[in-house]
Amino acid sequence: MTPRAETVGSLLRPPYLAEARAAHDAGTISADDLRAVEDRAVDEAIALQEACGLDIVSDGEMRRGVFTGSLLDAIEGVAGPPPPPTTWHGDDAYGTEDLTRTVARHSISATLRRVRSVAGEEYAYVRDRTELPAKATLPSPLMLGKWWDPETSPEAYPDPFDAFADATRILEAEIADLAGLGCRYVQIDATDIATLTDPDVRGQYDGLGIGAERMLDEGIDLLNELAATAPADVTMGIHLCKGNSEGRYIAAGSYEPIAARVFPRLDAYDVLLLEYDDERSGGFEPLTETLDGHTVVLGLVSSKNPTIETDDEIVARIEEASAFVPMGRLALSCQCGFASTAGGNRVTPEIQRAKLALVGRVARRMWDD
Fold first, then answer.
1. Which CATH number does the domain housing residue 321 bear?
2. Which is nearest to 186 in space by CA: 140, 145, 129?
3. DSSP-derived pairing of the beta strands 295-301 and 271-275
4. Which domain holds residue 298?
5. Which of 47, 87, 155, 298 is 20 to 30 Å from 126 by CA-CA measure?
6. pLDDT digits (tens, 9 = 90+) for 263-293
7. Per the structure, how many domains does the chain have?
8. How far is residue 25's CA from residue 27's CA, in Å, rounded to a whole number?
């Protein structure tokens, strides 16, 4: 059966988890105490997804401070000064303003080396607590561009793509370990590629010495190599969104400027998870560039807009998309995670539940015989 309803990965962290993490950072509770609190949060995340009728569940990324943690928390070699900041665009609809900040406290400073597995521990816990398929989420190796300081990082890697290649090898080992644990669905989160629809973001990559054109050339090759090394029975998905955190976004624009250069070259992937929740996402025409072997998961339900979409609105959008991709190759999700960073988006747990239930309910309506 082709899964038709899923969430991208991260879910809102409950307040008690934030309190426990702060207590651990302050040294007032132990690592074991924090782990017990994280376990509780993951148990609740699994139960939520099951109750909402999703076909695949994640751990909600409850053990991470940011979605890239499954890579950054597992490697050495990132201890340099903070890299240049990125501008996140606010939106009046969500009560946010533009914010220029860096997501990283440190930058690449030495040869990258994997010292532990993060995603393996996350996956093993979920696997033992649900009858549904569980997926593991990993960041794109190109996300390390956000940890690149053009002033100091070249001392470790004269060419940033050598760092990305090392990160690719590290993630290949992570996927092999996940497969050994029984994981049969791995999702790569690649906001680095989708944000290149925006000329301003392309300029940022050029200014860092990374190069937008190289991202769309060598970068896509690395992403496809990563998926190609996975065992044949592991479904590989890639999430291509434009940055989403606490009601802000990095880039806007249709997939059209990059679709022909990206979608058909990701032929080692089985699933493309795409952002389609608002007018900034553009139309469905670029989906004609996807391959016959791709399942296209339409991120039609917003994880950042507190307004809850209606069933009929989402059904109409799916039917619109089916003019460009056959219905049998479509599926449904929220457009991004609800908490790419621990602070989460400006929605309530009740809204999150309603949106996840909407995904599950509409998927049954559209694809169940």
1. 3.20.20.210
2. 140
3. parallel
4. 5-367
5. 298
6. 999 999 999 999 998 877 889 999 999 999 9
7. 1
8. 5
